[in-house]
């Protein structure tokens, strides 16, 4: 279904009894290994379902087989961990694998998040092995339509919901014209789950920061990804802009006025970029491969109107690697953040810049992502009370993706990297250092760094 058709669907239509299904946020790892889909939960009538989506959120849980309608309150979020749990934790994460949102042979597949969870188990980076140091948030609200509409056009949101009938009939539809973004009958619901996981982690980190100087760093292990989704519709595998929605939530619900977004996905986060072009209180900084999809993110894209200067795009030449990214961090990211003085840092964490990833040609390593995770955590501690939430974006080689995310967890814990056990220096080649230096100098000149 072309996006233009989605935009024409202006109103909600109550879904059929059989079409309104609730899914577990996360199943057991062993079920994932067996490629099981989310199990069906309680069937709800369409009017009741959307009444709660519009007025609040719906509560989902790993541990129950029913869904509980919950009104949302920033002060009394009954799905958050206790203060003690938050105080003890050093890492908190949430899982939304969207197993029903899947297309055979598509790079953005339902195998991605389970591969990460399997690696976390293998490397003993879960509560089972680490006790209170690592906390999985297992109960959280779905994002509401109002949450999504803080970034996206309501016509798009309602149109996507309506398209679920067609997806149910056909099994799978394209929702970006002839582009690569698809939907199944569960896509709308699972996208609300993904966005809701991010919001719950923001709530948790903010709550923890009120009681400790070094709150846990959070990671939303979610899909579909979000940073390409533009305000008017889907794009580039992405359905809803998870990071952008979380940024507005931090502002509206928690009063965190200044939000600093770092996007180190190999592709430009054009959707996040577009959502905040004229907003001086949300600084969007993207590093990405020059010339890669979707072709946006040029040096001179710096925001408009009141937001001019609050968008920084740094396209890096193909072949850029660990040395380039370390230089970018210290010469560009740090001074920008220091000057902006954020209240919270959100990260679009794309792992598709890895040298083994099939969709681009940077040569980051697992060690590069460890460095970024460690340094961004420290930057948040230095500038905004440690408030920092990572959101999974790209990463399509399951091995490099899962090992790199696991090593990011080790960075959050302050433990040594295990990148040497995975990375193979022999496959790396000389970085284009002169072109990298020129790109960095150009962006520093434009932004007076």
Summarize the structure.
The protein is an alpha/beta fold.
Helix-strand blueprint:
Blueprint: H1 3-8, H2 29-33, H3 46-55, E1 57-61, E2 68-70, H4 83-88, E3 91-96, H5 112-122, H6 127-130, E4 134-136, E5 139-141, H7 145-149, H8 154-170, E6 173-174, E7 182-183, H9 187-209, E8 217-222, H10 242-254, E9 259-263, H11 270-275, E10 282-289, E11 311-316, H12 322-340, E12 344-349, H13 366-383, E13 388-392, H14 398-413, H15 433-446
Parallel strand pairs: 3-4, 3-8, 8-13, 9-10, 9-12, 10-11, 12-13
Antiparallel strand pairs: 1-2, 1-5, 6-7
Helix pairs in contact: 5-14, 9-10, 12-13, 12-15, 13-14
Which superfamily, in CATH terms, is the homologous superfamily?
Histone deacetylase domain
Which geometry do the CA atoms define? globular
What value does the average pLDDT take? 86
- The total count of strands amounts to 13
CATH topology: Arginase, Chain A
Which structural category fits the helices and strands? Answer: alpha/beta
Listing every helix as H and every strand as E from the N terminus to the C terminus, the arrangement reads HHHEEHEHHEEHHEEHEHEHEEHEHEHH
Query: How many distinct helices?
Result: 15
Task: Return Rg in Å.
Answer: 20 Å
Largest sheet: 8 strands, parallel
The CA-CA distance between the termini, in Å, is 45 Å
CATH class: Alpha Beta
Number of structural units classed as domains? 1
Please list the strands of the largest sheet in the order they lie side by side.
Answer: 4-3-8-13-12-9-10-11
Report the uncertain regions. 1-56, 63-75
Helix content: 25-40%
Per CATH, the architecture is: 3-Layer(aba) Sandwich
Strand fraction band? 5-15%
InterPro entries: HDACs (IPR000286), His_deacetylse_dom (IPR023801), His_deacetylse_dom_sf (IPR037138), Ureohydrolase_dom_sf (IPR023696)
Keywords: Chromatin regulator, Repressor
GO molecular function, one term: histone deacetylase activity
Pfam family, one: Hist_deacetyl
């Amino acid at each position: 279904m072309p996006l233009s058709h989605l935009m024409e669907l202006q109103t909600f239509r109550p879904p059929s009894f059989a079409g309104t299904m609730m899914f577990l946020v996360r199943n057991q790892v062993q079920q994932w290994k067996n490629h099981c889909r989310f199990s069906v939960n309680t069937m709800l009538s369409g009017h009741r379902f959307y009444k709660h989506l519009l007025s609040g959120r719906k509560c989902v849980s790993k541990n129950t087989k029913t869904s509980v309608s919950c009104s949302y309150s920033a002060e009394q979020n009954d799905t958050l961990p206790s203060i003690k749990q938050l105080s003890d934790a050093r890492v908190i994460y949430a899982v939304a694998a969207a197993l029903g949102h899947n297309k055979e042979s598509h790079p953005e597949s339902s195998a991605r998040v389970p591969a990460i969870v399997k690696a976390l188990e293998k490397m003993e980076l879960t509560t089972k092995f680490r006790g209170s140091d690592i906390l999985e948030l297992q109960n959280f609200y779905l994002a509401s339509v109002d949450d999504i509409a803080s970034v996206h056009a309501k016509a798009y949101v309602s149109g996507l919901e309506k398209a679920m009938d067609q997806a149910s009939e056909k099994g799978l539809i394209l929702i970006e014209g002839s582009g690569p973004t698809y939907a199944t009958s569960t896509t709308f619901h699972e996208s609300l789950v993904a966005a809701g996981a991010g919001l719950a982690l923001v709530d948790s980190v903010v709550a923890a920061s009120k009681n400790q100087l070094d709150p846990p760093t959070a990671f939303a292990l979610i899909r579909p990804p979000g940073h390409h989704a533009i305000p008017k519709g889907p794009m580039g595998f992405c359905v809803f802009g998870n990071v952008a929605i979380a940024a507005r939530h931090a502002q509206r619900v928690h009063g965190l006025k200044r939000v600093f977004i770092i996007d180190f996905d190999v592709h430009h986060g054009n959707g996040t970029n577009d959502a905040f072009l004229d907003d001086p209180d949300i600084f969007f900084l993207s590093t990405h491969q020059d010339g890669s999809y979707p072709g946006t993110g040029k040096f001179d894209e710096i925001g408009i109107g009141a937001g001019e200067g609050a968008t920084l795009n740094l396209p890096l030449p193909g072949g850029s690697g660990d040395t380039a990214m370390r230089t970018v961090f210290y010469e560009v990211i740090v001074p920008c953040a220091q000057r902006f003085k954020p209240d919270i840092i959100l990260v679009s964490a794309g792992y598709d810049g890895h040298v083994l990833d099939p969709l681009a040609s940077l040569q980051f390593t697992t060690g590069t992502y460890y460095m970024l995770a460690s340094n961004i955590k420290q930057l948040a501690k230095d500038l905004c009370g440690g408030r920092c939430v990572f959101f999974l974006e790209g990463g399509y080689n399951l091995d490099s993706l899962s090992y790199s995310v696991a090593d990011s967890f080790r960075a959050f814990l302050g433990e040594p990297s295990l990148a040497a056990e995975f990375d193979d220096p022999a496959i790396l080649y000389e970085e284009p250092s002169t072109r990298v230096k020129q790109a960095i100098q150009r962006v520093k000149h434009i932004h007076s760094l």
